[in-house]
Design a protein that fits this description.
- The chain has about 180 residues and is an alpha/beta fold.
- It contains eight helices and four strands, in the order H-H-H-E-H-E-H-E-H-E-H-H.
- Strands 2-3-1-4 form a four-stranded parallel β-sheet.
- Strand 2, helix 5 and strand 3 form a beta-alpha-beta unit.
- The radius of gyration is 16 Å and the shape is globular.
- The structure holds adenosine monophosphate (AMP).
- Adenosine monophosphate binds next to helix 3.
- The site of adenosine monophosphate has 11 residues, from helix 3.
Length: about 180
């Protein structure tokens, strides 16, 4: 299988090529075609096998194929990626920006240990397509009303096992309650 055979959007294929991915890794080959049909996917593979790009390619392609033609509001992302640590969330944000480089999709992260008010201001003033977040900070923003999840098309739980081990089950439950 190659990326071109997945009928991905041209702007995404351009980024995939620019970043130097010549063919999908096994986890990408197994998950992307399935997830692109709108089905839920649970992917298990070791670090370094290309899981991040597997869900980012799916999310970016889906958002590009389903543009919103009604009025949009700030603080209402269309895809939410939750990850256990600030470092991981920021790495995902960086990867997402690289893959979305030739699109007009807006990527942002809200993670703990960073200025809350600045994040809130950005959430309240800018359109966001893909939000990457750590669980605690995410629920803080939901409680404060700076973030609304009713327009979500995608929810990704990266390293879900790790998030449960770290005691984030209640935070994740609170997120699930807000998801359509
Ligand atoms: P991850 O498992 O998400 O931590 O990814 C590990 C590394 O694999 C990252 O540096 C990615 O840039 C790289 N990578 C992801 N997909 C591919 C691919 N299809 N071909 C080559 N490298 C890839």
């Amino acid at each position: 299988m190659n990326f071109a055979s997945l009928s991905l959007s041209k702007s995404l294929l351009r980024s995939i090529e620019a970043v130097g991915y010549h063919e999908p890794t096994p986890i990408q080959e197994q998950t992307i075609p399935h997830a692109l049909t709108g089905k839920d996917v649970l992917g298990c593979a070791q670090t370094g096998t290309g899981k991040t790009a597997a869900f980012l390619i799916t999310v970016i392609n889906d958002l590009l194929k389903h543009p919103i033609d009604v009025q949009r509001f700030a603080g209402e992302p269309r895809a939410l990626i939750v990850a256990p640590t600030r470092e991981l969330a920021m790495q995902i944000e960086k990867d997402a920006k690289v893959l979305a480089k030739h699109t007009d999709l807006q990527v942002m992260s809200v993670v703990g240990g960073m200025n809350f008010n600045r994040q809130q201001e950005r959430l309240q003033n800018k359109l966001i397509d893909i939000l990457v977040a750590t669980p605690g900070r995410l629920t803080d923003h939901l409680r404060r009303g700076s973030l609304k999840l009713q327009d979500l098309r995608f929810l990704v739980l990266d390293e879900a096992d790790e998030m449960l081990k770290m005691g984030f089950a209640d935070d994740l439950e609170a997120v699930f309650e807000e998801v359509p």
